[in-house]
């Protein structure tokens, strides 16, 4: 009898280990993901990416309320496509990358909206300030990877980005767009 229980116990331990691996935080594939800010300057929409970020996601579609996500963003990697503009937005009046080299987003729990859509709530930390945000996220697949797509509006004024002389030139609302690809944990 003991000989039969050991193989079953071993199988149960292996199964639990495999399930635990599925629930573990999976690293974001920065090479396959995009994170950008869309803003309006003189009534012209401009989209610029953050070229360096990392993060992890813990998502089980059978338990969305227990989902967690973390993004760590290199603020100096914001790229407007021209080094003069990039140097300007790194200054204290804008992103102040010397004092605030990192921005972060933490989300806990997803609320199902039907189909493959969820509501994600979390906190954005940027330039020494926090803001609670809620975004609609669409979850899909790209091969074995899980993909999270969405956008969320923020107020640049809330974070002290841009001084008063830019109020009539750059709109206050900025939309942060994301396409996050998470390969399965190894």
Name the features:
disordered N terminus, 10-stranded antiparallel β-sheet, alpha+beta, 186 residues
Describe the fold and architecture:
The protein is of the alpha+beta class. It has a single domain, classed as Lipid/polyisoprenoid-binding, YceI-like (Lipocalin). The chain is 16% helix and 47% strand. The protein is built from two helices and ten strands; from the N terminus they run αβββββαβββββ. Strands 1-4-5-6-7-8-9-10-2-3 form a ten-stranded antiparallel sheet, with no helix packed on it. A hairpin with a 2-residue loop joins β8 and β9. It is globular.
Overall pLDDT score: 87
Number of strands: 10
**What portion of residues belong to β-strands?**
over 45%
- CATH topology value: Lipocalin
Structural class: alpha+beta
Query: What would you report as the Rg, rounded to the nearest angstrom?
Result: 20 Å
Please give the CATH class.
Answer: Mainly Beta
| Portion of residues within helices | 10-25%
Q: In CATH terms, what is the architecture? A: Beta Barrel
- Low-confidence sequence ranges: 1-23
Distance between the termini: 35 Å
Choose one word for the global shape: globular
Largest pleated sheet? 10 strands, antiparallel
Looking at this structure, what is the CATH superfamily? Lipid/polyisoprenoid-binding, YceI-like
SSE arrangement, N to C: HEEEEEHEEEEE
The total count of helices amounts to 2
Structural domains: how many: 1
Widest sheet, order of strands? 1-4-5-6-7-8-9-10-2-3
Layout of helices and strands, plus pairs?
Layout: H1 2-23, E1 26-27, E2 34-41, E3 44-49, E4 53-58, E5 68-74, H2 83-89, E6 102-114, E7 117-126, E8 129-142, E9 145-155, E10 173-182
Antiparallel strand pairs: 1-4, 2-3, 2-10, 4-5, 5-6, 6-7, 7-8, 8-9, 9-10
């Amino acid at each position: 009898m003991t000989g039969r229980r050991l193989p079953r116990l071993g199988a149960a331990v292996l199964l639990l280990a495999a399930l635990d691996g599925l629930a573990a935080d999976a690293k974001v594939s920065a090479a396959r993901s995009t994170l950008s800010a869309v803003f309006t300057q003189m009534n012209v929409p401009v989209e610029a990416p953050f070229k360096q970020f990392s993060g992890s996601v813990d998502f089980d579609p059978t338990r969305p309320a227990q989902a967690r996500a973390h993004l760590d963003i290199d603020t100096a990697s914001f790229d407007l496509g021209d080094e003069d503009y990039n140097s300007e937005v790194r200054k204290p009046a804008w992103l102040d990358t010397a004092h605030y080299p990192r921005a972060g987003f933490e989300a806990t729990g997803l609320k199902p909206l039907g189909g493959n859509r969820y509501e994600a709530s979390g906190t954005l930390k940027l330039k020494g300030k926090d803001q609670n945000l809620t975004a609609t996220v669409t979850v899909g697949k790209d091969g074995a990877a899980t993909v999270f797509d969405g956008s969320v509006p923020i107020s640049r004024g809330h974070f002290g980005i841009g001084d008063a002389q830019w109020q009539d030139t750059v709109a206050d609302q900025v939309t942060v767009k994301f396409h996050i690809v998470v390969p399965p944990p190894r």
